[in-house]
Design goal:
- This protein is an alpha+beta fold.
- Helix content is 22%, strand content 35%.
- The chain has 3 helices and 10 strands; from the N terminus they run ααββββββββββα.
- Strand 2 and strand 3 form a beta hairpin.
- It starts with a helix and ends in a 21-residue tail after the last helix.
Length: 196
């Protein structure tokens, strides 16, 4: 009976979160608004991705370890671990619409928010806070790309791109007028699976 209740509560949480995520996806922030709403903006590389149960919260999270190369706003140690709602553990999955997709070794620029419950980091405004760094095949210039998920055929939805230099410059300029960083941020959650 206890297991059924846990499953029922997880199912209800999924419905609530999916409804919240759908509503959040429709409100697109400008780059200055995204920078203002973020406690830090960093550039780095994805080192590891793993999902696990968060026992205090009783749900599944994906933990994304990032090696930081540059900080455009705020402060961050050399390595951080993001905690993103959703993932797969064993035969149980929690899918949250609008969350960022991750690939090991991809280079990223991240606009980071703080989860109020445990002060861990996640991307600000779901997918909007994650930009992937790519090289233009024709010019060789670095650009950043973000998108809100994929359609049924696997094509990116709401794909957007710009020059990496433009994104970095805009984030640095806007960060001069942004609010201060809260204290007590958990840059590496103790419950995250160990890096392999």
């Amino acid at each position: 009976m206890l297991r059924f209740r846990s499953f029922l509560v997880s199912g209800l949480l999924l419905l609530l979160v999916a409804g919240t995520a759908s509503a959040s996806v429709t409100l697109r922030l400008t780059l200055p608004e995204l920078t203002d709403s973020s406690v830090a903006v960093v550039r780095g590389r994805v080192v590891a991705i793993d999902s696990a149960w968060d026992r205090p919260g009783g749900t599944i999270y994906t933990y994304i370890e990032i090696r930081i190369n540059d900080v455009l706003k705020g402060e961050a140690p050399r390595r951080i671990t993001l905690k993103q709602l959703g993932g797969t553990v064993g035969d149980m999955s929690l899918v949250v619409q609008g969350q960022s997709e991750w690939t090991r070794r991809e280079e990223v620029v991240l606009f980071l928010g703080v989860r109020p419950r445990d002060l861990t980091l996640d991307t600000s405004t779901l997918w909007q806070g994650k930009w992937t760094v790519e090289r233009d095949p024709e010019t060789g210039d670095e650009q950043v790309v973000r998108f809100a998920g994929r359609d049924e055929s696997g094509e990116p939805i709401d794909r957007e791109q710009m020059a990496l230099a433009d994104l970095e410059a805009a984030a640095r300029v806007q960060s001069r007028t942004s609010r201060s960083v809260p204290t007590g941020i958990v840059f590496n959650p103790p419950e995250a699976p160990p890096t392999r």
